[in-house]
UniProtKB/TrEMBL annotation:
It comes from the Bacteria. The keyword Ligase applies. GO terms for biological process: histidyl-tRNA aminoacylation. This is Histidine--tRNA ligase. It is found in: Cytoplasm. HAMAP family: His_tRNA_synth. The lineage of its organism: Bacteria, Pseudomonadati, Bacteroidota, Flavobacteriia, Flavobacteriales. PROSITE patterns: AA_TRNA_LIGASE_II. Its main location: cytoplasm. The keyword Cell membrane does not apply. It catalyses: tRNA(His) + L-histidine + ATP = L-histidyl-tRNA(His) + AMP + diphosphate + H(+).
Length: 462
């Protein structure tokens, strides 16, 4: 009995229509990356485990897909380690490589390895798949694409302003108006942890806080207490959960809370500069919003952090995020190189555009012209015609066999082809071909020497 085919949970096959829609998003993002001066690079799908492990916090490390060593990897494990059934001690002995978790850490590794070949500040973009051993759910997959843009070697806050503009430009281009770009600063969170007496538990504090919009205030406080943050410390952080008003009013409230924290006040100063500059320049369709509970769980962020929410009314997690990292390259031997970057969540953006019906109708058309096949002689003449149309820039094809005309028309209809060419025995004898508009049903004859005229006519329709 044949095995029933399947794919791993959290992965997907994509139909031609889905690929066309994904490419539409990617092309928009890529266009704006290049308009803003970013250059493309690519890195391997898997890295040495030591490159990835320890860069994303405990939760991130658990979600990294490990790759088993080739050959008889178990024979190299000593009996004590093997019998202990301890994955922490066993994994390094049987797995030396892992699928990349994101594009930022591999980028930092790339910068260090190629530091003598690149010019700083270095602006790069990267559009490639990443893998996470996460629990699959709506908008969350185990294999998905990230579309990243980063700048390293520049500590000016104008870079943060530029990334806000980049988000705004892409989402406006996609017709996704009303997105909210949330912003915070990790220095503010460090300052809060400092003033409430939980500086030594900063990671636990920020990881829990980052879940506020998902699990609510009470659950966040419960998780903080489970991680060892005292009730007294949580009580001191209460103003965080009660922040109201516009950005200016919230910044004033934070100044009171962080009055005794030097690092916290630095974070406030950076936020004020970014927000005021963005407000001065203006945005096309997105909104910039201060969110003091935004934490982003990745350990390497040290300054401004971003997260993008879909337009109001769309139930979806973040569709983009990023932030400033002051010394990510330092872990690979190149200290004091500041960087900042953002990522677009391709898969979630796709789901949002689908839900809001924002994909252009033209994406459903994979062919401009289909030439029907009426036999060997007519087929050869049709093939020459198709070749000329292709050289004119049209997506043209010839039906591969002389099947029943009804079947060929049905094929054209299913593929949403706007124009069908009929070149039968009579047309061939007269030196003509007939074009049928599949939408209106109108037909028109053209001489063979008017192929270019026909091509230009229908190109103007697209």
């Amino acid at each position: 009995m044949a095995q029933k085919p399947s794919i791993p949970k959290g992965t997907r096959d994509f139909s031609p229509a889905e690929v066309a829609k994904r490419n539409y998003i990617i092309q928009s993002i890529k266009k704006h990356f290049e308009t803003f001066g970013f250059m493309p690079i690519e890195t391997p799908s898997f890295e040495n485990s030591e490159t990835l492990m320890g860069k994303y916090g405990d939760e991130g490390d658990r979600l990294i897909f490990k790759i088993l060593n080739s050959g008889d990897f178990i024979s190299k494990v000593d009996d004590v380690t093997y019998s202990s059934k301890n994955s922490t001690s066993l994994t390094p002995k049987i797995s030396e490589k892992a699928l990349r978790y994101d594009l930022t850490v591999p980028f930092a590794r790339y910068v260090v390895m190629h530091q003598n070949e690149i010019d700083f500040p270095f602006k790069r973009y990267q559009i490639q798949p990443v893998w996470r051993a996460d629990r699959p759910q709506k908008g969350r997959f185990r294999e998905f694409y990230q579309c990243d843009a980063d700048v390293v070697g520049a500590d000016s806050l104008l870079q943060e302003v530029e990334f806000v503009q980049l988000y705004d430009a892409v989402f406006t281009d996609l017709g996704l108006k009303g997105c909210t770009i949330k912003i915070n600063n990790r220095k503010i969170l460090l300052g809060i942890a400092e003033v409430i007496g939980a500086k030594h538990l900063l990671i636990d504090f920020t990881v829990a806080l980052d879940k506020l919009d998902k699990i609510g205030e009470e659950k966040v406080k419960e998780e903080m207490m489970e991680k060892g943050i005292s009730e007294n410390a949580i009580a001191k952080a209460q103003p965080l959960f009660e922040m109201k008003g516009n950005a200016s009013e919230q910044l004033e409230q934070l100044k009171t809370l962080l009055a005794n924290s030097e690092v916290g006040m630095r974070g406030l100063s950076e936020l004020e500069e970014i927000i005021s500059t963005v407000n001065m320049i203006g945005l096309q369709s997105a909104h910039l919003q201060l969110d003091v509970t935004l934490a982003r769980g990745l350990n390497y962020y040290t300054g401004a952090i971003f997260e993008v929410a879909a337009p109001e009314g769309v139930s979806m997690g973040s569709i983009g995020g990023g932030g400033r990292y002051d010394d990510l390259t330092g872990i690979f031997g190149l200290p004091n190189v500041s960087g900042v970057g953002i990522s677009f969540g391709l898969d979630r953006i796709y789901l949002v555009l689908e839900e809001l019906n924002l994909f252009p109708d033209s994406l459903d058309t994979s062919l401009d012209v289909l030439c029907l096949n009426f036999g060997k002689g007519e087929g050869l003449a049709s093939l020459k015609l198709v070749s000329t149309l292709r050289k004119s820039g049209l997506r043209a094809d010839l039906y591969p066999s002389d099947a029943k005309v009804q079947k060929q028309f049905k094929y054209a209809d299913k593929r949403n082809v706007p124009y069908v060419i009929l070149l039968g025995e009579q047309e061939l004898a007269e030196g003509k071909f007939v074009v049928k508009n599949m939408k209106t049903g109108d037909q028109k004859s053209y001489d063979f020497d008017a192929v270019q005229q026909f091509a230009e006519t229908i190109k103007s329709d697209f």
